[in-house]
Amino acid sequence: MTSNFGTDGLPTAPPVARLVDELHKLPGIGSKNAQRLTYHLIRMPEREARSLAEAILAVKEQVGFCDQCQNITDQNPCAICANPNRDQGTICVVEEPLDVLAVERSGAYKGLYQVLHGAISPMSGIGPEELKVGDLLNRLKADAAAQDQIHEIILATNSNLEGEATAMYLHRLLAPLEIRVTRLARGLSTGSELEYADEVTISRAFEGRQDFA
Amino acid sequence: MQSHPDKPRTYKTEGVVIRHSSSGEDDRVLAIYTIDYGTIHVVGRSLRRAKSKLAGHLEPLSHVAIQLIRGKGIDIVTGADTLHGHTSLRNSLEGIARGLVCVEMVEAFAPEEHPNPELYQLLLDTLEQLNGGEADRLLWYFAFHVLRVTGYMPELQQCVVCSNAIQPDEHMFSPGLGGVVCTDCARDGDPAGPHERAGAPLLSLSLNSLKVMRFFRDNSYDAVRGLNVGSELAGELQRVLGGYIHYLLEREVRSSTFLAGLSRGP
Fold first, then answer.
1. What are the residues whose beta carbons fall under 8 Å from the beta carbon of A45, sequence distance 6 or more?
2. Contact assignment for B56 to A201 by CB distance below 8 Å
3. Would you state the pLDDT for residue B199?
């Protein structure tokens, strides 16, 4: 290993500087963290380092988007879309692949998904065109049989301004298809206290109140 | 961002949340336009967790009272109470888009950490009126007055090239020079003229548009609301004012582009 000056002007070996730069590109990793991770990797046994490198490559080579739901998968259609035991009549629309995991973890839903890969955020210049909204429409429009089969679309975007805007936009888009469109309940979350709730949450909780069963 | 030197270690203020973005494991960085410090960027710890007590209060467009503690790099929100959630505004896509146009304009035109009470009050009044059901006319009024209170008010009385009083006639508007160009100066058409050097082409400005702009400038929104503005005139105002704002910001007001897209239908 020849000693040299890295991009930060410090005497760092080029392969080390390169790894620091690459790690620095990851979200939430600052320059100090990138350096710390790099020196951790250098001290790691080669077998483990190789396994990490292979795992990164495998993700890039084998993982893509499911043609049907746009979730991240290593098979097409994905395991959820291909599972005949799932309720084929409902589609739950979520913002991110991680939201699918959150819903699956709850065990409360057995239908299909559609992943938008984001939410409408006008100030950041993210409109419907930047999301996989068209894929949802194509899914419903392209296959008449599918349209007959699907009886409910659940809008499970986040309960924040961007999520609400996205849900409203989708509702408007889906209205002509005459499929039942529902929105996840919004209001007080489990374990929360009324005293600390904001006015929007409380008004949504009142709107969505149900008979006491 | 350097912390404001005049802030005590813990402090309270009120403001309107402009935007939020994810940070770290479950934090959010917020941009808030405050009455005391102008636009500040602060971090809300664990705001993305479902059980966060503060998250609901710190949504964009909310008018909130906040408590903060000075951090090393960025201040931290320790408490928040909604003063006005603008709930009606959030119930429609157009309402959300109009609200976002307002906060985006304020963020773009207000220098960071520089209070402007007049701009703050204008923002609060406008969000309140939008929440009450007002629509696009109010946005143009708001945009015009954002320009006024931030020092970008277009010159509507004198020609920005020759300084002569503007006569009642068809004129041009120079986004680069920030005002009306009289017929004589516009006719010269000298490509090396000052308005060309300012880097933006002249826009045509009818006498009626000029009158409406002066009326916007000199009157309250209650008076402007009753003004009869035809669609052609509204289009021209949008072109001139939009062109001027685009020149100043060197970009579109993105929420405004989104709002315009909504009226064209999905």
1. none
2. yes
3. 65
